[in-house]
């Protein structure tokens, strides 16, 4: 099917290792400082410009956890990639649409009051029009109305990050938003308070590593024999994929684009004594992150840092269309399972990963008192 006829059919004919974390958290400051900075109107021409090179998840680009009062213009550039990917160890394929080639797209980090300036590129080799909706932005459908780009075009959007937290961004073309999202087009932006993260009493919190986990529900069509179908283009897969989507029953639920993407050699890394920030996004369905063998020491379930974090959670809830954040300081070495605690979705559909932690075992926290053996009389 030609691109023009396909776009007309779907109502779019006129549209087109660990992160390096720099610097400790600053001393306690006025809790309203970030909000005050965000409310000030600045002469953008006089602000410092910072160009950031994005990295593929689960890593996050180097950033300061706390900064001074003067905002900056943070420049990002992302390129839309439409490509076929393999989503499991059985060779099942999907025609994915992605930001910068990864699922999820790269995580952007700024501070409250900064200006986000994104250049979105849609290469001529692509077939579909694309745009971007930032849940952190105000106006124009999160920027979607101002970023529609056809193949062979690019657009630059600037918005003020006036509220802190972790937020989803996703593609939102008129008429096919859901299809683009479940085909891979979502990611996360983290807007840190200028003074850094704080606990419920306002005491500074710091992380040694930060990872981003993007959870996706996928809908892969099957043929009459029950085998997953393979398509040469995204347009060719559209009708069949939407039919599966309408069942509201995903065939796969995965972290970072593939079953096993964060397991084995690709496991997240940490050391005993390190505090890790886990950012978890789901642009479409609810999820329940859980760290087997660990906890959420400090958790922003709804992802907004102006709200005090919850403490000591076993499982936390991230509503569809949002991102959550959790801090945990590892106390024991070993392999931890990080998963969606809907166990059907994690163990049968793929929503699980590993964290490999190095260090010395603490017998006081846990010890096998007696090895398995024959049953003895009580």
Using brief descriptors, characterize the structure shown.
2 domains, 378 residues, disordered N terminus, mainly beta, Immunoglobulin-like
Can you give a write-up of this model?
It is a single chain. The chain is mainly beta. It has 2 domains: 3-16 and 32-55 and 67-193, Immunoglobulin-like (Sandwich), CATH 2.60.40.420; 212-358, Immunoglobulin-like (Sandwich). The chain is built from 5 helices and 21 strands. It has helices at residues 3-9, 33-39, 177-182, 234-245, 343-348; strands at residues 21-22, 48-51, 63-64, 72-86, 93-99, 108-111, 115-122, 133-134, 153-160, 165-170, 186-192, 209-218, 252-255, 268-271, 275-282, 289-292, 296-300, 310-313, 322-329, 334-340, 352-358. The protein has a 6-stranded mixed beta sheet. Strands 2, 4, 5, 7 and 9 form a 5-stranded mixed beta sheet that branches. Strand 4 and strand 5 (93-99) form a beta hairpin. It is flat and about 75 Å long. Residues 1-31 have low confidence and may be disordered.
Percentage beta strand:
25-35%
SSE order = HEHEEEEEEEEEHEEHEEEEEEEEHE
The spatial strand order of the largest sheet comes to 13-12-15-19-17-18
Q: What would the CATH topology of the largest domain be?
A: Immunoglobulin-like
User: How many strands appear in the DSSP assignment?
Assistant: 21
Specify the structural class: mainly beta
Provide a compact summary of the structure.
With 378 residues, the chain is mainly beta. The chain contains 5 helices and 21 strands. It has 2 domains: 165 residues, Cupredoxins -  blue copper proteins (Immunoglobulin-like, Sandwich); 147 residues, Cupredoxins -  blue copper proteins (Immunoglobulin-like).
